[in-house]
Design a protein that fits this description.
heterodimer, A: alpha/beta, Rossmann fold, six-stranded mixed beta sheet, 9 helices, 11 strands, globular, disordered C terminus, B: ABC transporter involved in vitamin B12 uptake, BtuC
C-alpha cells in the first residue's frame, strides 16, 4: 500500500452509519496515507457516496471514528478538504463566471463578512492554471462543456489550502477522451501538489487503472488492497454478488467458465 | 404631482421597496423560492388579522407571523414524508383561512383588510416611511454581507456544507429576510401582490444579463422604476397604485422576453 511519507491522511475505524433508521455502512475500516490515490468501488446502493460524505463531515457516524489529518471532519478540517460531489452539470443560466465559481472554494478562508483580496484572486488564477482553464476565467460557467465544468469544480476544490481531494463519480457524463484527460490531470495534481485523493466511481476498471489502491464495499468492507489484486479477487465478486469478469466486461458462464478464481 | 408631500413619501417608499425586492428577488428567482414567497406573503394575512383584532400594530404582528411561518416551512419541508410545496400550500392556506375567519369576526367595513391586501402607499406617513427605510437598509445590508455564502449555497448546497458554511442557518436567515421584506412591501402593493415585486424584476434581470453583479443592479433598478412609473400612472389615471406598479413590471417582463427571443 502507498505510504509515501507514512502519515495518515484519512483514518476510518470501525465506522457504522445509519440513515433514516437504516444501516448504510457497517464496520468500515481503512486508512489512506498522504500522497495516495485511493478508489472506492462497490455495486449500486453499497454506501460509497455515504462513505465519502462521512469523510468530509456531512454525515455523522453512530459507531467508530473518522479522522482527517488527525482530526474529526468538520469545521477544523474543512479548509484542508476539497470536495467535488456527484453532479451532471452546472445549470446553463447560473449567473457566475468561472472565476466567481472557483472563488467560492476560497470563501472558507474569508469569513462570513470578508471580501476577496488580490491575493485571493491570484489563488483563483493559480487553481485555474493547474487545471488548464485560466483562459476561460471570465466565461459564464454554465456555457462550458461537461469536461470543462468538471475542471472548474476541481479548481474550486483546490482553491483553498487543499490537502485532501474527495471526488464522487468525477467522470460521470464524460466521454472516453475527456475521462482519460481528467485522470491524467489528477495524476499531474498528485505529483505537483502532493495531494491525497479519494475517489468513488462506478467505473471499476477505469479507476483500477488509475489508482494505487482500491477499496471495495457493499455496506461493509469486502477488500482493500493494491488495485490489481483487488480487481482479480474473489472478494470483489462477492461484493458485487455475481461472477463478473471486470476486465473482460462480461458475466462468466457457470458451465465451463474460464475466469481465474482467487 | 411631485410637489405633494404624500406623493413624495409614496415615491420614496416605491424606490426603497423596489430596491429591496429587486435584491432579495435575485435569490428568490435563482433558488426557485417563488412559491415559498407566495406562501409567506399570504400567511402574513393571518398575523395582520390577529394584530387588528387584538389592537396591536398589524404590521408587527404580521411580521412575527410571517417569520414564524417561514421557520415552520423551513422545519417541516425537510421531512421525508411530505414535499416542500405541499408544506407551503398547507401553511399558507391555513394562515389565510385564519385571517379570513378573524376578519369575519370584526363587524363593519374592513378598510384595514383591503389596505393590507392591496396596499395603500399613498397614505404612508413619515414615521412609517422612516421605519420602512430603516428596515430596508438593515435587510439589504444583511443580504449583501452574506451574499457570497448565499451564492455558494445556490451553486451547491452540499459543497457549501462540506466547506464549513452554516447552510441550515443561512437558509433560515434567507427565509426570515424574505418574510420581513414581504411585510415591508405590504404598504406599497399589498400582501397579494408583493410576491410579484420579488419575482418579476429579478426574472427580467435574469433574462437580460448573465452575471450576478449586473443581475442585482438591474433587478433593483427595475424594481424601483416599476414602483415610480406605476405610481405616476396610478396618479394620472386614478387607478390602484399597487396593481399599476405590478402591471408595469409584468409589461417590462414581456418586453424583455420578446427582445430576448428576437
Amino acid at each position: 500500500m502507498n505510504e509515501r511519507n507514512g502519515k495518515v491522511a484519512v483514518e476510518v475505524r470501525g465506522v457504522s452509519v445509519e440513515l433514516g433508521g437504516r444501516s448504510v455502512l457497517h464496520d468500515i475500516d481503512f486508512r489512506v496515507h498522504e500522497g495516495g490515490f485511493v478508489g472506492i468501488v462497490g455495486p449500486n446502493g453499497a454506501g460509497k457516496t455515504t462513505l465519502l460524505r462521512t469523510i468530509v463531515g456531512l454525515v455523522s457516524v453512530i459507531r467508530g471514528r473518522v479522522e482527517v489529518f488527525g482530526r474529526p471532519p468538520g469545521q477544523n478540517t474543512s479548509h484542508a478538504i476539497g470536495y467535488v460531489p456527484q453532479r451532471q452539470s452546472i445549470a446553463r443560466n447560473f449567473p457566475a463566471t468561472v472565476g466567481d465559481v472557483v472563488m467560492m472554494g476560497r470563501l472558507r478562508h474569508l469569513g462570513l463578512m470578508g471580501f476577496p483580496s488580490r491575493k485571493d484572486w491570484q489563488r483563483v488564477d493559480d487553481s485555474l492554471s493547474l487545471v488548464g482553464m485560466l483562459d476561460r476565467r471570465d466565461r459564464a460557467v454554465g456555457r462550458l462543456s461537461g469536461g470543462e465544468q468538471r475542471r472548474v469544480m476541481l479548481a474550486q476544490a483546490l482553491c483553498a489550502s487543499t490537502r485532501l481531494l474527495v471526488l464522487d463519480e468525477p467522470t460521470v457524463g464524460l466521454d472516453l477522451p475527456a475521462e482519460h484527460e481528467f485522470y491524467a490531470l489528477l495524476r499531474k495534481l498528485i505529483r505537483e501538489l502532493t495531494l491525497t485523493i479519494v475517489a468513488v466511481s462506478h467505473d471499476l476498471v477505469a479507476l483500477a487503472g488509475e489508482t494505487d489502491e482500491l477499496i471495495c464495499i457493499n455496506h461493509r468492507m469486502h477488500i482493500h488492497g493494491n488495485a490489481e489484486d483487488v480487481i482479480h479477487s474473489h472478494a470483489i465478486r462477492e461484493a458485487y454478488c455475481c461472477e463478473f469478469d471486470f476486465l473482460a466486461g462480461e458475466l462468466a458462464h457457470h458451465e465451463g467458465h474460464d475466469h481465474a478464481e482467487l | 404631482m411631485f410637489e405633494f408631500l404624500f406623493m413624495q413619501r409614496a415615491l420614496t417608499a416605491a424606490v426603497l421597496v423596489g430596491l429591496l425586492c429587486g435584491i432579495l428577488g435575485f435569490f428568490v428567482v435563482l433558488r426557485r423560492l417563488a412559491f415559498i414567497g407566495v406562501g409567506i406573503s399570504h400567511s402574513a394575512i393571518g398575523g395582520v388579522a390577529i394584530g387588528i383584532l387584538a389592537g396591536w400594530n398589524p404590521l408587527l404582528s404580521g411580521a412575527v407571523f410571517a417569520v414564524a411561518v417561514a421557520l415552520g416551512i423551513a422545519l417541516v419541508s425537510h421531512s421525508d414524508y411530505i414535499s416542500e410545496d405541499t408544506v407551503i400550500g398547507v401553511f399558507f392556506s391555513g394562515s389565510m383561512a385564519l385571517g379570513i375567519v378573524l376578519f369575519s369576526m370584526k363587524s363593519g367595513y374592513q378598510q384595514d383588510l383591503f389596505s393590507y391586501l392591496f396596499g395603500n402607499v399613498l397614505a404612508i406617513s413619515t414615521a412609517e416611511l422612516v421605519a420602512l427605510a430603516i428596515g430596508s437598509a438593515v435587510i439589504m445590508g444583511v443580504i449583501l454581507l452574506t451574499f457570497k455564502e448565499h451564492l455558494l449555497i445556490a451553486f451547491d448546497e452540499e459543497v457549501a456544507a462540506a466547506y464549513g458554511h452554516k447552510v441550515g442557518a443561512l437558509n433560515v436567515l434567507l427565509l426570515v429576510l424574505l418574510a420581513l421584506t414581504v411585510v415591508i412591501g405590504v404598504r406599497l402593493v399589498g400582501l397579494l401582490l408583493i410576491q410579484a415585486l420579488l419575482v418579476v424584476p429579478a426574472a427580467i434581470a435574469a433574462l437580460c444579463v448573465t452575471n450576478f453583479r449586473w443581475q442585482l443592479l438591474l433587478a433593483a433598478s427595475i424594481g424601483s422604476v416599476s414602483g415610480v412609473v406605476g405610481l405616476v400612472l396610478a396618479y394620472q389615471l386614478d387607478i390602484a397604485p399597487g396593481g399599476a406598479i405590478v402591471l408595469v413590471a409584468v409589461i417590462l417582463f414581456f418586453v424583455a422576453l420578446l427582445v430576448k427571443r428576437r
